[in-house]
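ok so I'm stuck.
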Amino acid sequence: MTTRIDNTFVKLKADGKTALIPYITAGDPRPNATVQLMHFLVEKGADMLELGVPFSDPMADGPVIQKAVERALEHNVSLDDVLEMVRVFREKDSETPVILMGYLNPVEHEGYESFANAASSVGVDAVLTVDMPPEESMGYMEALQAKDLDRVFLVSPTTPDSRLEAVNTKGSGFVYYVSLKGVTGSKELDVDDVAKQVARIGETLNQPIGIGFGIRDGETAYKMAQLGDAVIVGSALVSIIEANHDKDLYEIELALGNKMSEFRSAIDRADAS
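replied:
not stuck anymore, here's the structure
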């Protein structure tokens, strides 16, 4: 079965386009804003959406997203709440892929099959579970696959070839390439090294490659769009939400829209070059 993610990448490739995948944390700055922000990001050029599931120990995330998670948890946003947000989003948008990004603990608490059933029923397309290595994912991956949910894995500059083979076998949808050593929002991005590493992993993987971590402005998005199939942006957007979290939604959208336009224009420029 082809998924929404498969179809999106096929269409983008036919059009010579690179996907823009923005990340926001569900429930930040407040739960009733998330669905509207998801629709807004699509209006501003998002091809897919990555929605963060709040968790008390977000070990792969830098301080910007950690604070976003804290704001969401202040509102007691749970995994069930996030799934309900996706369900409401699907009432108006049946096409844009939604990837849940989070950690294993809430899923284990829910139960693999129960979570997969619930995620599939509300319209989730893929799950990226940061702390679930492919070598230990038996059972979990099977539960997701049974419900046609794509399994997205992280790979990094230090990922050995043996793990790439495991990712290629157990993953689907796309691979999330961590463009630097560190956590989300890190600032130092070595473009030449990213190019070298993407070429290396591309020799093993038969999945599209999305590049994330450290993409903070149009210039870095432009460079990454020339290397991968998707550009993933998170902290640059979440920091805008943080700066405006106590303002009304219109002001938040205005600030986010400017940044999204910067990213979308840069990626389109790279695709045209």
